[in-house]
Specification:
Distance between the termini: 43 Å
Number of domains: 2
Radius of gyration: 30 Å
Strand order of the largest sheet: 1-2-3
Mean pLDDT: 86
Shape: elongated
Length: 435
């Protein structure tokens, strides 16, 4: 996620900003490899510039200035003003294009350095390369304007740090200073001030690239972990495809049984969680009854239904006095949240698209054929108004998890980087001997 890679970049930049007397740290004047180390640092810096320019390009459609502007005729097409973020994007592009350094290779990014300064730069460049997946255009297209402002604020802080570090490393043999460093520094400061006038949304840390979740194959885990393994596989396979109605009923029934039988294990650890699982079991009982009047043959998810049956079977063999760790209970709750959301989506989307139809009874005349039981004549018809169905109201009002709104702050790494930007070295004792 971007939160991990962004925090890694800010952490390494803060460590570099607190380092002074750089020439002595990279070996001193007598070190013949200072020029080679300086060129390697320039390559790592180029990776960081590439990420900064990419992030600004990805967020440019959502960037609007928070500074007050003079009133203009809204019906007259005028030339848009240059915002602080726009000027920062231009300055970063100019710095990247006019730098002669090449980006570091994969071997350089994955090979640790013996020099602590170069190692900080390597970790910084590595985090920047990983962050390119988090801020790619296809991922950034899901961001909103406040999240884009938070990302611009991060880029502005990185740009300010690069300008400060550029001045400290200027005496390194063969060092190439940032093109128009003053312009880049002022543009970064203007963009940061513009962003802070608004309300940046730091939930951007939760966005970004995530690895594909796969089923846990292989031998069955022992005890409660085997139940968790089957439930995990159910969640993964349910997200990959849509189930047909027969398999959906089996999955719903497995969740009903699993929630009711897991509740006693949670009672000894978290009574509130046990009550939530009992309520979940009651909801799935209602949903199971209401799904009897719904039919449909599209979809599959046979393996998901089998995973649900495996989870119930493995739980039935668990001793009743088993103590379940809070971390394991939290894993079940996370999987329950994912499965509930997915089942609610499947029911609503299936009914709206016509994959699921409702069963209605058609009146018929008794012909007196002599049969002891007269079968009920039934037909399946498309749903004209899905909101009229009880099953839709159940998944909307009871099954679907309520959105949890949590206030997210800037985090410790952003505050640490800001503190490092204004950091000043402590005055040395005149009587001490400087090495």
């Amino acid at each position: 996620m971007y939160g991990e890679n962004g925090a890694a970049m800010r952490r390494e930049l803060a460590a570099l900003l607190r380092q002074h007397r750089i020439q002595h740290r990279i070996g001193g004047p007598a070190q013949p490899d200072r020029a080679a180390l300086g060129q390697q640092i320039l390559q790592y810096r180029q990776n960081l510039l590439i990420w900064c320019t990419q992030a600004m390009q990805a967020t440019s459609p959502l960037l609007f200035s928070n500074l007050p502007t003079k009133q203009a005729n809204p019906f007259r097409v005028g030339r848009p003003g240059i915002t602080g973020a726009g000027e920062l994007a231009r300055a970063l592009e100019h710095a990247k294009a006019h730098s002669s350094a090449q980006a570091a290779s994969i071997e350089q990014l994955t090979t640790p350095s013996d020099n602590p300064v170069v190692e900080h730069w390597r970790e910084l460049a590595r985090a920047a390369v990983l962050a390119e997946h988090d801020t790619a255009p296809e991922v950034a297209s899901h961001l909103n304007a406040p999240q884009a402002q938070a990302l611009v604020g991060d880029v502005a802080a990185v740009a300010q740090a690069l300008v400060v570090l550029d001045q400290r490393y200027k005496n390194t043999p063969g060092w190439e200073q940032l093109p128009q460093a003053a312009r880049l520094g002022w543009a970064a400061l203007a963009a940061a001030l513009d962003v802070n006038l608004g309300q940046p949304d730091y939930t951007v840390d939760r966005s970004g690239w995530r690895p594909t979740t796969k089923p846990i194959l292989g031998p069955t885990k022992p005890g409660i972990l085997g139940v968790l393994q089957a439930e995990h596989n159910l969640a993964v396979r349910l997200n990959r495809s849509s189930p047909r109605m027969t398999n959906l009923r089996l999955i719903v029934d497995s969740q009903r049984i699993l929630s009711s039988r897991l509740a006693p294990f949670a009672t000894r650890i978290d009574i509130g969680l046990a009550e939530r699982w009992l309520n979940r079991a009651a909801t799935y009982t209602t949903l199971q009854r209401q799904l009897r009047g719904i039919g449909g043959r599209l979809g599959d998810c046979g393996l998901a239904a089998a995973d649900g049956a495996n989870a119930v079977t493995r739980l039935s063999t668990l001793p009743s006095d088993t103590i379940v760790e809070p971390r394991t209970l939290g894993g079940f709750q996370t999987l329950f949240h994912q499965i509930d959301t997915r089942i609610a989506d499947v029911v609503e989307d299936g009914i709206e698209r016509g994959s699921f139809v409702k069963r209605v009874t058609v009146p018929r005349l008794v012909t007196g054929t002599g049969q002891l039981v007269q079968p009920v004549r039934e037909r399946y018809l498309p749903v004209t108004r899905p909101s009229d169905l009880d099953v839709v109201q159940t998944v909307r009002n009871e099954l679907r998890p309520r959105p949890h709104i949590e206030a997210v702050g800037p985090g410790p790494t952003r505050a640490d980087l800001h503190e490092a930007l204004i950091h000043r070295p402590e005055p040395r004792d005149p009587g001490s001997l400087e090495l």
